[in-house]
Amino acid sequence: MTSASACPLCKRHFGILRWRHECDHCKKTVCDDCAPKLHDSRQCTACAAKAKQLRQTQKLQQIPNPVSVGDERATRMRAAEERMKAAMQRGRPQTRDVQHPVLSVETPIREMPQQQQMCDTGTSSSTHADVPTRANPEENPVLAAALRRREQEQLGGNTNRGNSSEKMRLLSAIVAVLHQWGEDEPFGLRSMDETKLQSYLCYLKSKDKSSAVL
């Protein structure tokens, strides 16, 4: 601690009310006001300002540069796009095989003959190596059920084309009653003749009346 008569920072003289203190950092002799005791350590105002400026500089250095962050994000996006393009090219078939239209179970009846003709034409024009082998319906129960469903729909469509207006009226009335009760059509309904349809409609009406009485 020096024997100076005045504080080198505030230039005020030391005395009974203004004591001498030594800065723990620069070791200068300063007064109480210029070197307050904080956290069991005395630090003059000059050293405190330097320490504050050093902390601010360190914080600025830790903040990432927005330009570099944007470049890094753009680089990652380009890399991701290139990976997606490469994956799409790997998954794309290199050769075009002859693809025949597949008949689904819900295919409309009016579209079935047209699609069947297209399948037959494509099969006859292709070579034996390109023709896919058809699975045996007995070995594939799903295929067998689909074939039976298609045959029933075709049978129903052919029957409807030959139906008279009276038969169509009876069918419409029966279907309306069944739908009103929330029931499905019985199997073989559309293959009945007009006499059986009339009898079945009378049965449904009598059943409806009996249920209404109850």
TrEMBL record:
Residues 113-128 have a biased composition (Polar residues). Residues 113-136 are annotated as: Disordered. This is FYVE-type domain-containing protein.
